Structure formats: structure tokens, C-alpha cells
Give the backbone structure.
Amino acid sequence: MIKCTFEDDKGASLRHVIVDTLVLTGNKLLLVKRAKKLTEGGKWGLAGGFLDRDEYLIDAVRREVLEETGWKVKDVNLLEVVDNPKRGNEDRQNVAFVYTCQAVKKVGKGDDESEDQQWFRLNKLPPADKIAFDHLEMIRFYLKNK
């Protein structure tokens, strides 16, 4: 947890802003297998990561998806905001802005944060215990509200 001191000399804990993205094509969802060195390593998850300083959320979505999967995307839309301070399996408190988008073109490979990436049919996802963090809840929210 990052600790900061504000102008009034009071300390505070900050929560991290992240984006998590459902990359879709037809009835398939792209999931990345997290590198073993990361929290929840070896599990499947949504493409995403931390918002950089001076970065807009939509730009973070495009950047993170491209970095982790090599895919360019379009039709980026906000699905939900997950601000639960007790999100499961987290090593820090993250506020997730969850987006959906459509895959357009594969232009590269994933970075070292992922070991693999695969397209899964929305009705044939990996078992719940093989999906990182609360990403399955995000996917279920999408399926319920699409």
C-alpha cells in the first residue's frame, strides 16, 4: 500500500486505479495466463493493469491490451466500476474500471506478464479456481448485462 502525506500533514493510504478489459470477438473472450512471478500467477485473467500518471482510462485499456496480448482493439466501453475494498486475492486495494472492447487486429505478442493467451467461448471458460482475482465476477456481470 502506498502511504502519502498531504498538505495538512495527515497520512493516508491510497488505492490503485486499474483497468480490466473483456476483449471480445463474437462469442469468445480473450484471457491471458498470468506469469508465475505475478500475484495469482498461472491463472487466467482479463487483460489489464495500472493506470499510468497523466493517462486517460481509455488509453490505459488500449495500452494494456496491446502490451499483454498484442491485439489492437476498438469499441471500448465502460462496463462497471469495482470499488470493493475487500476484493478477493488482491495484494493491494485496487479500484477497477472494467471495460469491454472488440478485437481488431493482432499486431504483436504478449509481454512477460503473461505466459499464454487463449480465446475461450463465453459458455466454456476455465474452472473458477483457475481464474485470477475476481475476474470471473466481472465476466458474469457482463454476461448478465449484455
Notes: The chain has a mean pLDDT of 91.
